[in-house]
Design a protein that fits this description.
alpha/beta; four-stranded mixed sheet; globular
């Protein structure tokens, strides 16, 4: 690595931009004179300087001038590989069609390639999460005692959009449940025009305090979201010598359970009298015979404070995945059963923050 460059310089104006007041992480990095802005620039400069020399300027320009999300995520992917022990090259390999792979990661156990996939645009995780949580809080608070709700579809209502129609729909829902009588399950659907639909399945549970099911009702994955990423990266994957892993960020609005479902298939429950049988119906993306993706490295959020990513392994590539990656929380599949192991590696985020603490020191 070369000299420590100051890529993101301190702003000349005293702007007090901070997240939570309508500004993105990119705004904070470029314009904020707050302590958060200073800390973020230290983090960015220190970690960009750890990237291979020939790629540093391109990464900085892309983040500052065009697509923050995609290239900030690429920075996190590169640094994750390095912290886990890989020697990395950026855009070093091309297939027969000239499509270049994002990262070549040479671990001591084996070599893999990474393609980073993130939503384009400047909305960061904080903004996406905040909009999601605002809608879900209204729904969650409207579910009465004795009921839980499974969230099927959720309207796309932003922070600046009126919530009046959503609140009217919740009043209608309350009236529906009030007249549900002996029904144990009640479906509910409401259209919001261009903002989409709300679909709920209400289940009567006597001891429930009321609310969305599970962890505040994480939004189910939009149909085929990872499938679209697989298709978009097909050219880069085709003809590569090494297995390719997709590093994926989905906007912070789905969790690892939904990712597992789309990759491996669904858990099907069947009952025969008092007997209950649960088995995996392997019809996920990894079950496709022509799937060339060796695995998915899933980041729930991207920020300068994030949890370690989760690794999903395509069973057909099990033996080709570096052992260094398996210290992360890992899902794989053996004999039609999903195998899960917990994360055993220290926080990658803390390592990146420690890098910025030491930045500029001799």
């Amino acid at each position: 690595m070369g000299t420590d460059n100051i890529w993101f310089k301190e702003p000349q104006t005293s702007e007090r931009h901070c997240r939570g007041s309508g500004y993105s992480l990119k705004d904070v990095a470029l314009y904020s004179s707050t302590a958060e802005g200073v800390r973020l620039r230290q983090f960015l400069n220190a970690n960009i300087n750890k990237v291979p020399d020939q790629y540093q300027e391109k990464l900085y320009k892309a983040m500052s001038e065009s697509d923050w999300n995609s290239f900030f995520f690429e920075l996190l992917t590169i640094r994750t590989c390095q912290i886990l022990g890989a020697k990395v090259q950026c855009e070093a390999l091309a297939n027969a069609k000239g499509k270049r792979i994002d990262v070549k990661a040479e671990f001591s156990s084996s070599t893999v390639l990474f393609e980073a996939v993130a939503p384009k645009g400047d909305k960061d995780t904080y903004t996406l999460q905040r909009e999601l949580q605002e809608v879900q809080k209204i729904i969650n608070d409207s579910i009465p005692k004795g009921w839980v709700a499974l969230l099927g579809k959720e309207p796309a209502i932003g922070s600046n959009d009126s919530k009046a129609n959503l609140k009217k729909a919740m009043i209608k829902l309350a009236d529906t449940l009030h007249h549900a009588n002996e029904y144990m399950e009640v479906p509910f659907c409401e259209s919001f025009g261009d903002n989409g639909e709300l679909e709920l399945l209400l289940i009567r549970v006597a001891e429930s305090p009321g609310g969305l099911w599970g962890d505040a009702g994480l939004k189910p994955m939009p149909e085929g979201l990872i499938a679209k990423a697989f298709k978009a990266k097909h050219d880069q994957v085709s003809g590569q010598k090494y297995p390719v892993i997709l590093a994926v960020y989905l906007g912070g609005i789905v969790d690892k359970r939904e990712v597992a479902r789309e990759l491996y298939g669904e858990l099907i429950e069947e009952r025969d009298g008092s007997k209950r049988c649960v088995y995996l119906k392997a019809r996920g993306l990894f079950a496709c015979g022509d799937c060339k993706i060796a695995g998915v490295l899933f980041y729930y959020q991207i920020d300068y404070c994030f949890d370690n990513p989760v690794l999903f392994i395509n069973p057909r590539f099990e033996a080709m995945i570096p052992t260094e990656l398996r210290v992360l929380e890992t899902f794989s599949m053996r004999c039609d059963e999903i195998v899960h192991s917990e994360n055993t590696h220290e926080s990658i985020c803390k390592k990146m923050l420690a890098t910025s603490d030491d930045w500029g020191k001799a």
